[in-house]
Amino acid sequence: MSDKLLNLTRRSFLGTAMGGAAALAAGQSFAAGKTLNVLSHKVHQTVLGTGDGDLLKDWKSANDADVSWTTFDSNPLQDRLFREASLSSTDFNVGYMVDNRPTKQIAAMFEPLDAYLQKDGIEDFEDIAPGLVQGMTVDGKLIGIPVRHATQGLFYNEALLEEQGISAPPTTLEELAEQAQKLTFTSKAGTPVAGMVLASDLAVFPVMFARAFGGDFINAKFELLPNPEAMEKGLSVLRKMFETGALPRSYATTKNDDQVTWLQQGRAAFTVLPFARFAQLNNKEQSKFPGKIKAIEFPISADLKGKMPMSSIVEAWGMVIPANSKDKDLSWKFIKEVSSKSATLGMAKNGNGPVRVSTYADPAMSSNPVAAVEAAVLKNARGAFPPFPEAARAQSIFLEEVQLAVLGRKEVKEAVASIATRVKPLLQA
Q1: Nearest CA to 377 among 264, 274, 271, 240?
Q2: Distance (Å, rounded) from C-alpha 141 to C-alpha 146?
Q3: Which of 3, 112, 264, 274 is within CB 3.0–4.6 Å of 287 for a Cys-Cys bond?
Q4: How far is the C-alpha of 180 from the C-alpha of 344, rounded, in Å?
Q5: 159-164 long-range contacts, Cβ below 8 Å, gap at least 24?
Q6: Do the bridges between strand 192-196 and strand 185-186 make them parallel or antiparallel, or are there none, so unpaired?
Q7: Domain 35-149+314-378 carries which CATH code?
Q8: pLDDT score of 26 more than 70
Q9: Residues 181-228 pLDDT 10s
């Protein structure tokens, strides 16, 4: 290599290196001064968008802050969140919690948010569905701000209803049972159809049937079976549906995903699923009935229709601040921004279940065929039961007794009495 070429190469290298250093220095001057660490499910990060579609872009700039996400699947996420909150301190500023997890002991590890709400309120906070707020309130203290939900609705195959001469879906629970019986048949396509398909391993469904008669499993006041007769009526309907074949013989082993498949394939006429499943159920590549699977509010009993609202089941996520975290004011600013009307709408466009009732009425949501009915249902929706330390065992006992009753292995009244006897000590633990 010549001295001239060597000198040129060195100059080029030095120039490139100095230019790179200058660029790095310039980049550092524009770097955010603070980092907010968030512990969540990947979906919570995804719905906030990236690049030009980043819903937090202006917030980051205004607060000189960047957001660092650490994501896990639901159960590992909750375990990590509670572990971090139990330490002497944590680097995480905000966490996402499922509303069926905050027991009194868990809630004590997170910052009460009532004072923040009073001092620097969230935009139109009353617009957030009250049942979701209730799910994030423990011992009268608000520990989380709802950010995402999955609310249950009654789905039906309109084509199968029409095939059996049924012109409209049911408006009462009694009509649902009657139609499910009529829709237990062999379709023109030669497919055996069950009137209704439900998973047997989820408390959602028997609780919905009990609520249709004004009852519950465990209400918000931690009253166990506040109306035992209503639970008996709900389980009696399910038992009769099973006895007559309107619930498939495989009921005891049916899982949640089976419900989707059965409805898509025309093997069942009715099921109960989150409204968010609407697009999947009508997916042209997966469903034999695209555009024909509709959704309505789960119906209340004839005796209660017009006298009280139906309280469907909802599961929700809330944003929480660990009590042992730093810079809680920045954490609150993040929560406040993500809870705003504009961010809620933006996340809804990206597939999030919006927690604000008003979001469903926005023109941008007009392409969602179930937006109006979901908004109406959300107003009165609440969790299947409140969280408490022995909730998992209580649910297991509840489902065991429900199955025995529905399958005819135990009298309904006896099963309900057994639920009361076996679950009561768990509530007192």
Answers
A1: 274
A2: 14
A3: 264
A4: 37
A5: 159/266, 159/289, 159/292, 160/187, 160/193, 160/266, 160/269, 161/269, 163/187, 163/188
A6: antiparallel
A7: 3.40.190.10
A8: no
A9: 999 999 999 999 999 999 998 899 999 999 999 999 999 899 999 999
Q: Amino acid identity, residue 90?
A: T
Closest CA to 161 of 176, 174, 139, 173: 176
Q: pLDDT, tens digit, for every residue of 286-301?
A: 999 999 999 999 999 9
Which structure tokens are listed for 199? 């998973």
- d(C-alpha 223, C-alpha 271), whole Å: 28
Answer whether 337's CB lies under 8 Å from 147's CB: no
Q: Report residue 258 as tokens.
A: 């089976």
Give the pLDDT confidence score for residue 392 in this predicted structure.
86
Burial 118-153 (b: 16+ CB within 10 A, else e): eeeebeeeeebbebbbbbbbbeeebbbbbbbbbbbb
Same fold, 35-149+314-378 and 151-313+385-428: yes
What residues have CB less than 8 Å from 202, skipping those under 6 apart? Answer: 256, 399
Helix (H, G, I), strand (E, B) or coil at 52: helix
Q: Tokens in use for 242?
A: 């099973």
| Residues 403, 200 contacting (CB under 8 angstroms) | yes
Residue ranges per domain, the chain?
Answer: 35-149+314-378, 151-313+385-428
Find tokens 């007559």 and name the residue: 244
Please choose, from the candidates 343, 337, 331, 335, the residue with its C-alpha nearest in 3D space to the C-alpha of residue 34: 331
Q: pLDDT band at 4, cuts 50/70/90? A: very low
Does the predicted TM-score (pTM) go above 0.85? no
Distance separating alpha carbons of residues 312 and 373, to the nearest angstrom: 12
Q: Under DSSP, is residue 319 helix (H, G, I), strand (E, B) or coil?
A: strand
The pLDDT-based confidence of 20 (bands split at 50, 70, 90) is very low
User: What integer pLDDT is reported at residue 2 of this predicted model?
Assistant: 41
**Exposure letters 23-42 (e unless 16+ CB within 10 A, then b):** eeeeeeeeeeeeebbbbbbe
**CATH architecture of residue range(s) 151-313+385-428:** 3-Layer(aba) Sandwich (3.40)
- For the stretch 91-122, pLDDT in tens is 999 999 999 899 999 999 999 999 999 999 99
